[in-house]
Amino acid sequence: MTSVEEVLTSNLYVQQTKKLYKIGEILGLHEDQLTALSTPERVIQVKIQIKGKDGLIKTFTGWRSQHNSALGPYKGGVRFHPNVTQDEVIALSMIMTWKNSLLQLPYGGGKAGVRVDPKSLSREELEQLSRNFIDAIYKYIGSDIDVPAPDVNTDSQIMSWFLDEYTKISGKIDPATFTGKPVDLGGLSVREFSTGLGVVHTAKLAADKFLGGLEGRRVIIQGFGNLGSFAAKFFQENGATVIGVSDSKGGVINPNGLDYNKLEEVKKTTGSVVNYPEGKKVTNDELLVTETDILVPAALENVIHKYNAPKIKSKLIVEGANGPLTADADSILKERGIPVVPDILANSGGVVGSYVEWANNRMGEIINEDDAKKLILTRMEKAFEEIYKKYNSLGDQDLRTAAMVVAVERVIRAMRVRGLI
Ligand SMILES: NC(=O)C1=CN([C@@H]2O[C@H](COP(=O)(O)OP(=O)(O)OC[C@H]3O[C@@H](n4cnc5c(N)ncnc54)[C@H](O)[C@@H]3O)[C@@H](O)[C@H]2O)C=CC1
Ligand SMILES: O=C(O)CCC(=O)C(=O)O
After folding, report:
1. Alpha-carbon distance 128 to 57, whole Å?
2. Which spans of this chain does the record mark as coiled coil (predicted)?
């Protein structure tokens, strides 16, 4: 992307608001109602300071956006990324409101971001940063207030530091305050891979409707982190052929297929999938427009926009990441007849996994791994069927519109009875 293109596509909040306003037109909402739906209830901005290994104080900014609590406590992940902004965090928290509503979870939407490159920190510095972030926001979170979880560049180790710090500072022993914890702290082993599992399950449901099945289909995945790597594993296990993957350093394509175990090995030993030996090295821009059956953007937002949407050569797109398509890209792909499984369904396996973990912690019960997996997949199937029915009844609309109509209507009903809209 050129720098001009980057500026034009870079505001996730603008993109998400455009998507919401489209739903507003369909549901006949007026401006005041759209303002009530798009405005976050609270955004907490904090200054986080750590003492670096060089003895100098380093200062970072973090945010927690609590978008909407009509359906329950705020729920959503924490992102550590050098480019994260307040607008982006608000937009991501709004996406969480629709996602939790669509999946009928007892949650509103929240999200956090800390503007930091975690790769530039030592482990000790990362621990300080994680603990100090919780010190700054602990008054605003809790198992029945706001429940953070992992997102980009955060994992079960960071959730452990969060929980430990929260316990010390609040005096409350309440592990359900965070999800995505390690099993030893009340986590659910399924949560680690539930986002990738759900992405592949929805890809299968959509492939059955639009491509005549998943088996033998070619798949390209952008991003090889938590979501992308587990998605690659489950696509391979379901008989699809992963022909392309990438990470922040670039990508690799091999029309004969890339082996999941080998990709993991290459990533572990060299730091990037780009070093996979058998295949052609490509940039992320090239990867996105390579011919394939299924394309899964599983890294960051706004990567498919009006400049590359006309060049996409995939028959189906499954949004692993949050907000990977701009509103313009939605229109272009709809015109071109390329179905898009929206983020609020496709990547919801993560938060449904979190829900099982949270419910387990609160009830003091143990749902075993198989039952947790079944619950996640059944919830997602139910949401898929609901969306598909709405998609057929709306007429000339795309799957995102159908999903958002279902999700937004549910939030509106809850806000209406509370007298908030
Ligand atoms: N982890 C989870 O449970 C969930 C994650 N998501 C979404 O999935 C997406 C990925 O999240 P995770 O896998 O958790 O993050 P992660 O931090 O584990 O992995 C991110 C991956 O994206 C790659 N990446 C970063 N910048 C890139 C760029 N400019 N081009 C190409 N690749 C790039 C990184 O190298 C890494 O492979 C995000 O949009 C996140 O919000 C959504 C639901 C749940
Ligand atoms: O597991 C969760 O609570 C939320 C995960 C998340 O941030 C997301 O679905 O985007």
Report:
1. 12
2. none
Does ligand 1 come within 6 angstroms of the Cβ of 227? Answer: yes
Closest by CA position to 404, among listed 99, 111, 195, 109: 99
Does any ligand 2 atom lie closer than 6 A to the CB of residue 73?
no
What is the model's pLDDT at position 367? 85
Q: Which domains are delineated in the chain? A: 40-176 (3.40.50.10860), 193-346 (3.40.50.720)
Q: What is the mean pLDDT of each run of 10 residues along the chain (421 residues)?
A: 54 95 97 98 98 94 98 98 97 98 98 97 97 98 98 98 98 97 96 97 98 98 97 98 98 98 98 97 98 97 96 98 97 98 98 97 86 97 98 97 98 98 94
For the record, the structure tokens of 98 come out as: 């629709």
Q: Is the pTM of this model over 0.90?
A: yes
Dihedral sign for Cα 122, 126, 131, 133, please.
positive
Looking at the CA of 231, name the nearest ligand.
Answer: 1
Phi/psi of residue 220, each to 5°? -120, 135
Query: How is the beta sheet containing 146-150 ordered, strand by strand?
Result: 42-51, 57-68, 108-115, 74-81, 146-150
The residue whose CA has the least distance to atom 4 of ligand 2 is 76
Shortest-distance ligand to the CA of residue 224: 1
